[in-house]
């Protein structure tokens, strides 16, 4: 919730900590990408990532991608930034969301703009991964899977985040029934308490727990995804007040250790 939403930890220190903890990749949000572009440059960032031995990059997040350029609420500033960054950083995918609010009643109007964005991403050498969120228009993974199917574009898939699966009330049986092997581009693992703390948004940004420290059936989720043939990238995304207070090297090492125990 910083404005701009840039990390207080330097990009060099983050890359060092990521590599030291044993990860093979990293993710970056738009404001951080803009800050790097305007300081050391994206080419230098690409080289730093490669020099650290990291081979997977994810960038995010494009919302309201169906709003035309020039219309109120459009997000073309972020869209243009991430598409340009994709040419340099060569991410496995660009993560996209939808908008905060009730779930869409009809997904049909989203198909054409999603295909257009996916075509632009493909021209930059990457793909789109839809991340569903229970407080958004695309509220559940089954909804996201339906949109992927309706779109029928080879460059559109899903980013499955455990928090968004379980806080949306999606069962593992529903997850199993809705997914196909080729749909899932990436997974994010995390945990949480049985009861939502504050609003859903407050819970997701301030109260996530390390894997195995909460109530989510993470082994069950992993089993469903492996049964579908998914073999990575497995990511870990811990957003919490207490996690952010830790030194970055300690935080990333603890996240890696607890997530690998689940995997």
UniProtKB/TrEMBL annotation:
It holds the Pfam family AP_endonuc_2. InterPro entries: IolE/XylAMocC-like, Xyl_isomerase-like_sf, Xyl_isomerase-like_TIM-brl. Gene3D superfamilies: Divalent-metal-dependent TIM barrel enzymes. Keywords: Isomerase. GO terms for molecular function: isomerase activity. Residues 15-247 form the Xylose isomerase-like TIM barrel domain. PANTHER family: BLL3656 PROTEIN, HYDROXYPYRUVATE ISOMERASE. This is Sugar phosphate isomerase. It comes from Mycolicibacterium psychrotolerans. The lineage of its organism: Bacteria, Bacillati, Actinomycetota, Actinomycetes, Mycobacteriales.
């Amino acid at each position: 919730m910083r404005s701009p939403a840039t990390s207080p930890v330097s990009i060099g220190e983050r890359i060092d900590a990521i590599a030291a903890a044993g990860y093979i990749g990293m993710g970056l949000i738009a404001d951080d990408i803009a800050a790097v572009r305007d300081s050391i440059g994206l080419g230098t960032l690409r080289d730093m990532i490669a020099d650290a031995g990291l081979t997977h990059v994810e960038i995010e997040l494009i919302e309201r991608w169906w709003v035309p350029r020039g219309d109120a609420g459009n997000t073309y500033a972020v869209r243009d930034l991430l598409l340009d960054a994709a040419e340099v950083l060569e991410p496995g995918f660009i993560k996209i969301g939808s908008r905060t609010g009730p779930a869409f009643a009809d997904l049909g109007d989203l198909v054409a703009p999603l295909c257009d964005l996916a075509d632009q991403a493909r021209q930059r050498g990457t793909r789109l991964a839809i991340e569903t969120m229970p407080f958004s228009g695309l509220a559940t993974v089954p909804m996201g899977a339906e949109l992927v199917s309706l779109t029928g574009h080879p460059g559109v898939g899903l980013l499955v985040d455990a928090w968004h699966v379980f806080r949306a009330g999606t069962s593992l049986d529903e997850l199993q029934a809705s997914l196909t092997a080729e749909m899932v581009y990436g997974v994010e693992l995390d945990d949480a308490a049985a009861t939502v703390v504050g609003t859903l948004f407050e819970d997701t940004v301030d109260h996530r727990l390390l894997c195995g420290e909460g109530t989510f059936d993470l082994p069950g989720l992993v089993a469903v995804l492996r049964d579908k043939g998914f073999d990575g990238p497995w990511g870990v995304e811990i957003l919490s007040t207490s996690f952010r207070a830790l030194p970055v090297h300690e935080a990333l090492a603890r996240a890696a250790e607890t997530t690998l125990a689940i995997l």
